Amino acid sequence: MIAQPPEIQQPPGNGEPITIKVGLFFLNLVSLDELTQTFTCTGYLTESWQDSRLAYTPAPGEPRSRYYTKEHVWFPLLQFDNSAAPRVLSSYLLVGHADGTMNYIEKFQVRASSNMKLRAFPFDSQDLEIYIHPFTGQVNRIELEVNPKSTGISNAPYTPLPLWQTSSITYRSVSGEMSGEAGAIEAGSHVVFGIHVKRNSEYYTFRIFLPLALMVAVSWGVLWIPIDDLNSQLLISVTTVLTLVAFSVALSNILPPVAHLTFYDAFFLLCFLFILITIGEALIVHGTHRRVDHAAAIKIRRVTRAALPILFVASSAVLAVVFILF
Fold first, then answer.
1. Among 21, 16, 91, 73, which residue's Cα sits nearest to residue 49?
2. 162-197 per-position pLDDT tens digit
3. Which residues have C-beta within 8 Å of that of residue 27, sequence separation ≥ 6?
4. What is the mean pLDDT of residues 294-303?
5. pTM recorded for the entire structure
6. For 46, 140, 163, 253, which has the most beta carbons within 10 A of its beta carbon?
7. Residue 228 pLDDT
8. What are phi and psi of 32, to 5 degrees?
9. Which CATH entry fits the domain spanning 202-325: 3.10.129.10, 3.90.1150.10, 1.20.58.390, 1.10.10.10?
10. Burial 30-43 (b: 16+ CB within 10 A, else e)
11. Quick one: average pLDDT of 127-136?
12. Of 92, 171, 73, 83, nearest in space to 127 by CA
């Protein structure tokens, strides 16, 4: 067995973990996929630590920094715990200074998974987070801290996504245990970087919610058709129902498949319900006209002309409060 050079072995820490300062600078949010609940981004990962073995006294005229490769010196191995695919490294730089300070920086691209909260869709906001953790074998040997100086997000015009508003970056350090099949195991320290993004809902408002509301309004056209003309009333109502179903099928590919109801789901069901109520009203009024009294049928029709729009607006407001604010 060939012995490793001392520089490749972990720096002496007197039995204490070596502190690694980690920074993450986001360059570009490439994509965000609600269907798979993943996002892709590019950025710079920076690591800084102290290695007294590599300290030196610069000779006259010698630069106060030296460049190394990963094969010649020890450096901390970090992984993105929530990556959905292997992190792609495009380039890196490993620099040592005269006082033994080591700086490592890499440009990467990664697709990471995120537990998105889509209850308020499409009026939702998300926290896109990246969990950075020491690689197996170094968990108990190094301790991670956030380096705010090398953490941030680019303000370039290509950084945000078209349908999302991007705010500043957040970060935190976490230590503790994680559970496994053999019970709780030591997780060591890890750092979490996140970006808070808010969806631009105008696209969905004009492409989805406004057409749905207009379909409900079209169904109310039967309230102004003569009471005895049941065929025309049912024709309008049934046509509106079929249009609503076709509209829903057309949108199925762009909606997030989640196990719970979103605001869009609730609003769609509300529209469907009010169209069915309109059909039921037409049948009741026509039956009242034929079997009971024409005046009573007229009275019911006058009430529903005012009540249905008011109830629809009120119900939509209640749904907005329940799904968006809570």
1. 21
2. 889 998 899 998 875 544 444 444 556 789 999 999
3. 41, 42, 43, 44, 107, 154, 156, 159
4. 91
5. 0.80
6. 46
7. 87
8. -140, 120
9. 1.20.58.390
10. eebebeebbbbbbb
11. 90
12. 171
Burial of residue 20 (number of CB atoms within 10 Å: 0-12, 13-18, 19+): buried
Q: How is 18-46 classified by DSSP, letter by letter? A: EEEEEEEEEEEEEEEETTTTEEEEEEEEE
- At 125, the amino acid letter reads S
**Three-class SS state of 282:** helix
Instruction: Return d(Cα 312, Cα 293) in angstroms, integer.
Output: 28
The structure tokens listed for 85 are: 């695919």
**Of 180, 197, 193, nearest in space to 80 by CA:** 193
* Interatomic CA distance for residues 88 and 188, integer angstroms: 25
For residue 204, count CB atoms less than 10 angstroms from its CB and return exposed for 0-12, middle for 13-18, buried for 19 or more.
buried
Instruction: Tell me the average pLDDT of the chain.
Output: 87
The superfamily CATH assigns to domain 6-199 is: Neurotransmitter-gated ion-channel ligand-binding domain (2.70.170.10)
Under a CB-based contact definition with an 8 Å cutoff, are residues 146 and 173 in contact? Answer: yes
- Cβ-count burial of 134 within 10 angstroms (0-12 exposed, 13-18 middle, 19+ buried)? buried
